[in-house]
Each structure stands twice: as C-alpha cells, then as structure tokens.
Predict the structure.
Amino acid sequence: MKTRLFTMLAAVLLSVSAFAQNFDHEVTQPAPGGNTPDGGPQAVSNITSVAGVPLVRLNNGVMMPRFGLGTQVQSLEGPNQRQILNETVNGMVISALQSGYRHLDDAMFYYNERGTGWGILESGVPREEIWVTSKISGNLADAQNAFNGMLERLQVDYIDLVYIHHPAGTLTDILACWRVMEDEYKAGRIRALGISNFDNRMEAFNYILQNAEIKPQIAQIECHPLAQRTDARPLYADNYDMQVECWYPLNHNRNDVNNPTLQQIAQAHGKTVYQIILRWHIQEGLCPVPGSTNPAHILENISIFDFDLSAEEMEAIRGIDMGDAGRSFNLQYGNWGFGNFVDYEYEHTYTPSAVTENEDINTDIEPVRIFTVNGKQVNTLQNGINIILMSDGTVKKVVVFK
Ligand SMILES: NC(=O)c1ccc[n+]([C@@H]2O[C@H](COP(=O)([O-])OP(=O)(O)OC[C@H]3O[C@@H](n4cnc5c(N)ncnc54)[C@H](OP(=O)(O)O)[C@@H]3O)[C@@H](O)[C@H]2O)c1
C-alpha cells in the first residue's frame, strides 16, 4: 500500500515538475514580429491545448503544442509519384487535425508541403490554431526564394517554426540562411527559429550561437528510448533554454518497439508500446513528432494523455538507452550541399470537411476540444462537430468550424 502511495505521489510530483519545467522560465529572446505595427503573427495565433497535449512556452514567449505529426513519407520521384505522395500527406494531415493534433512537422525537402497545405485547408481547423513547421536547407544559394516558396506551397502567410534542416554547406552559407530567417521573424512571417541535426556538427552550432541576433528556440534531434541523447539534450535545454524536439521518436518502427522493458510496461498499462514510447517523451519534457500514414495509428499515438508512467517505469526506460549505438541515422555534416529543389505542379480537387448544421447547436457551450462520450475520451472532430458530454450526462453536438 505504502509503495503504491509513494508511486502515485511520485507520478503526481513528476507531472507537476514537467509542467513547471515547461512554463516557469524567463523569456530570453525578442518576440517575433518586432518590426510590424500589429505585433506580427503572435497576435493572430490562437494556439491552445487540444486533446490533452501540453503547451510549452518557448524562450521567446510563444506557446507551442509539445506533440505533433511527422509528415515525412518516403521520398518519391517524378510528377506522378509526387502527386501520390502529396495526396497521402493530405490525408495524414486531415486525420491528424481531426484527431486533435495541432502541430505539423514538415520540410521543403520532404516534397510534400502542398499536401500539408491542402490538408490544413480541408481539415476545417482554422489555420491560426495550428503550429506549422517547415525546414529549409542551410546550403541553398537563395534562402529568401526558398522561404517564399514554402509559404506558397503551404498556402499560409506565416510559418510558426522554420528550422535550418541540416548543418550542411559552408558556415557562411548557413549563417546567410539564418539571417534570412531572422529577417522573416522580425517581419512576423516566422514565429520561432530552429536548428535541426546541429548536434552532428558542433562548429556550425557554435557559429550560429555566436553570430545569431535571434537565438534558436528549438533544436530537433534524433531521440527515442534506445538513443536518449543524454549529452545533446542538456546542451540545448539547460544551456540555451531551447525546447528539444525529437525526430524518429518511434525509431522509425525499428528496434525500440521490440524492446521487452517497453513491452512489459505497455502490458501493465493496457497501452501499446508506441503509446508508452511517446508518453516517455512527454514526461521527459521532450516534443515528439511521430509519423504515420494510418488514421488508426495517428489517433492511437495522440491517445497518451490519460495515463502516467510511474517514476520507476521512467527509470526503467532510462535504463535501456544505448547511447549513440542506438541511433538509426548519424550523418557527419560538412561543407557539402543537398542538391537542387525540384517540384512539380499537381492536380488537386479540394474537398472541405463537411459541416452539418445541427439543431443541437448551443452557442452557450464553450467550444471545448477535449471531450468524453460514454466515459471514453474522444479526440476526433466529426465533420467539424465536437461532441461534448455535459455535466447532466447528456451529449451535445457543437459545430465549431464553419
Ligand atoms: N530533422 C530531420 O532530419 C528529420 C529526420 C527524420 C525524420 N524527421 C521528422 O520526424 C518525423 C517522424 O519520423 P518517422 O515518421 O520517419 O519515424 P517514426 O515516427 O519514428 O516512426 C514512423 C513509423 O512507425 C509506424 N507507426 C507509427 N505509429 C504507429 C503505431 N501506433 N502502430 C504501428 N506502427 C506505427 C509508421 O507506420 P504507419 O504509417 O503504418 O503507421 C512508420 O513506419 C518525420 O515524419 C519527420 O517529420 C526529421
């Protein structure tokens, strides 16, 4: 009994401290949109917590959902294949947004920004509620042109987070790209700046940190239970107050999911091993961006905010870390580039999510986005309609998006 009480207390303290860690720090960077009269996109953005996803306040004061959808699908070449790729990503984005995701992780070199843009428009979720991320390659000759293309393909007039995707190219090229991002940040077309894979080229990391006028808010690295990156994480989080975001959070469906420790914990909670891995990320203060093309997996992956891993379980998971040996992709970057960006024109028929007028509309009801039906948490927006269990036990449908 005592052990159980202790475990419960530890779990509560753990979640409280994870919360405090996210919100209780000083803002160290100027807010975006400093050059604009209306304060830039920070003023128009309306990021809120949906489906239980915690928000983190970044070192520039901007709030970001600390869980997202990875949109990278195997690269396909040629116009027909790319059409399929973009249609696939369109479907993933609609599924994710309707399952409660409000954070999308994209990149120009995923060649799928158009599919993401179609999905945002068709989902019925207002753009301002969505954290849209893309990545630009640091070695591009014309970073400004590349950024303008990202806005056009995503069909947005600002991007919440832009990363330098890889520290490839000369240090001068990388800094020139950063300067373009800083200008866009000041103009209010970017809300947060990020570096991705800079842990694999520390000279580029140091060069940006020494020369940047606007310091990065976020670092994206490979991170999952078999490669927990215990060196890289504190470098960013403790020294520079940057949020760590994790790519391959499920290790691309490789070794982590077969690990017996993770499988045992999954069984104890009646959850899948995928959910245990993602819950571990959340309780470690990390931001995972799992990818999936399967709507059932997309919903499963976000359904991790109704249970806690105990302190002992977190410790057991920390024990399976293999360090760099557990990494899937460990590229040494240098003075070389990623080739040219080639895109195509695609056909697309827009099918906005159907919004059904419903006699149960009650405008007094807050448009709450976390709701329960018959004791089961439901994250899915059904054709733009939220279903809310009222305190008197009745179920109300509320049309949120028109
Ligand atoms: N910055 C960088 O350089 C970089 C590098 C790599 C990736 N990334 C980002 O990280 C994101 C995630 O990476 P990733 O998608 O390659 O790897 P991942 O999220 O670690 O794993 C995705 C794989 O797991 C499967 N999966 C997901 N959820 C599942 C579930 N509940 N049950 C069973 N299988 C499941 C998916 O298959 P199904 O489709 O069948 O569900 C897919 O094969 C990318 O999309 C991208 O945004 C960034």
Remarks:
- The chain has two domains: 2-326, 355-402.
- The first strand starts at residue 55 and ends at 57.
